[in-house]
Amino acid sequence: MLHLFDVKDFKGHAGNNRFELPGLTIVSGTNNSGKSSLLQGTYLLTQNKTNGKFTTLELNERLRLGSFSDVLNKETDRTDTIEFVAFFDRDFLMKDSFETLRVQLVYQSQSLFAPSGFMEEDEALLTGMTLYYRKENEEPRNVEFQLLENENNNALFKITGDTEEGYSKITGIVPEPIFYKDTDMTERFICSKELEIVRNYLARLNTDNIRYLSTHRSPDAQKPSGEGRRHGVGVSGEYTAEMIKNRLHDLIDFKDPDHKPYAFSKLFDMWVSELLGPEYRIRSEVQDGASKIYVHEPHRNMKFSLQQVGSGISQLLPMLVMILTSKHGDILLIENPELDLHPKLQAQFVDLCIFALEHGRKFILETHSEHIVNRARLRIKNRNELLEKIRIYFFRKIDGDIRCTPIAVTAEGKIEEWPEHFFDQTYQDLMGLIE
């Protein structure tokens, strides 16, 4: 869905920072160097909430990031802005004959606007949005929305641009289709056909299409039956058991070699066998009104709860279910996929991601695992076409500033220039052992 993402003055990222999202983006680096912030910033595209009048970023409902001041880069002034820019994939836009679509979102502390009628709270208030788009064989268009004073208790945005002029309300980050010629909102008109198409794309920036899975995953959290249909696996994987039960017999958005959709159960069982071994079968059952996961060993006629097996299975299952229940075009954000996984399983997880990549998914993985990086390099060597689909970034702090280095990988899977502290500890320790 997206191929580039910019973040400005968000947490440790001072100034403007751009990241490529070609398919499988692997983010590694030292601690406290801004890796999680990339995933969080991407997910925050989905967290624009409207209270009926104006839009704020929901920083705490799922990510627990605190207030606007907590996430504004500390080298800035409190009056400065946090900005996110999302660039849509051209392939994603082709059905509407669009070549380019870019949306820039600007946030400031709501407390700065208290004199204009806003509540004096330190929330991330949406104060501006710029849309840049171009249709095939047409000139590019630019439309800006700028928040006005809270007149008549209505948060209106002034619209200026190549095709639109007037005033509008915004729900989340989607402008309402009815525009106004003046601030008293008496004369109305409908937005252009092109902007109506753009509105539909903006509405796609939601939690159904951009999914986040945090480090500490709890797939057997005993959530009430039926909740998983609404929440996916959840940010902590808390609805995994419910999703396995609900989706078991559903057709999913993955095609078999005959180009027919897989049933979830078939593809799920295939990957459980590939990742954990053919002796395992995993199912979810309802107990006391909640779903519970069991690991079956049919050859021994035994089953075990997740509390009776290794924690690696508990960490793997939310990721597997999240991937298999995703859709073409989805972006999947996963923190520390290697947690509690054996090195071989960490490497195999990359193969699962590449399988999903080939079915139209995109990933951002935050990892400290050299096994994940090395498997990605190996697959590039085995299949050179993946070179354009995989990006590796290395984050570190130098004199308090975050430095993000794209790691150049050759068609042979070699790293052209190995940065200091980039998975070099094993080498250093081995050299120490042989001295």
From TrEMBL:
Residues 388-432 form the DUF3696 domain. It comes from the Bacteria. Residues 6-373 form the Endonuclease GajA/Old nuclease/RecF-like AAA domain. Residues 214-233 are annotated as: Disordered. InterPro entries: AAA_GajA/Old/RecF-like (IPR041685), Bact_Antivir_Def_Nuclease (IPR051396), DUF3696 (IPR022532), P-loop_NTPase (IPR027417), P-loop_UCP034888 (IPR014592). This is DUF3696 domain-containing protein. It comes from Paenibacillus hemerocallicola. The lineage of its organism: Bacteria, Bacillati, Bacillota, Bacilli, Bacillales.
